[in-house]
User: What shape does this take?
Amino acid sequence: MFGIRVFAILSVLCVATRAQDASRLPLEQVPVNSVATVSSVAMDRSGTIYVLQRGEKADPVIAVNKEGQTLRSWGKGMFTVPHSVRVDADGNVWTVDAGSSVILKFTPEGKKLQEISVGEMAVGDKCAFPTLCGTTDITFGPNGRLFISDGYGNARILEYTAGGKRVKMWGSAGTGPGQFQIPHGIAYQGNTLYVADRGNSRVQRFDLDGRYLGEWTNLGRPFALKVSGGALWVSTMFMKPTILKVELTTGKILGQIESPGPHSIDVSESGELAASGCCGGSNPNGFSWFKTR
Assistant: This one.
């Protein structure tokens, strides 16, 4: 069953796995043994890859080119538990901290532009894990609207304005429609928000006002989402980490390929993929880049 799907994605998407591992790349300004768990990766339109890592010996945010050369890095002392990195349409770099529930916005060069402190963090046994009690991901809606998944304790989605003012929130812990068990990733397309409800092994869909539109339960245990090239890309866990290409309106799986890890994914409009090896994957201290032929 899975073998047929793997063949489908290789033939339809023409993906060649060039697994460029951060622990083996010539990171010119960062010693190899300084990079610890790579939590998340993101790409900008120029092809720069932003790596968010949790090691104390190097900056949390490391920008590299496709040859693995370090271009710049920043952020030491600014994070508790770095969790997600995203690049918006203007090329700004956003980070999500799962240990402090703080969202940071930077220029591509690392100048801090904005800080959103979500607050109201879970504590004690309400945290999903001992050091993970806060926010998990962010996506960018129309007119500067920001949507944040607050998944490691509060089990909710929040909307903020471009200026950082909270507009609304919805969701609670549970298994019903609009409820969550670790909403871990979030993505946007058109009038729909897609949420990776990791603990409930489903992707839930909402309109931009938080109204429940439906769910898909055929995508394994989803960790991260990205809309690109007219499809929803899902980094998930079946029996092993897998990247799925999914039809946006039906949830039909169009193809799949084995991933280095389920935690993070980014996909460019040209079809290039970047994925971290963290959290159940083959190389937690690395990432992989998949280039289309």
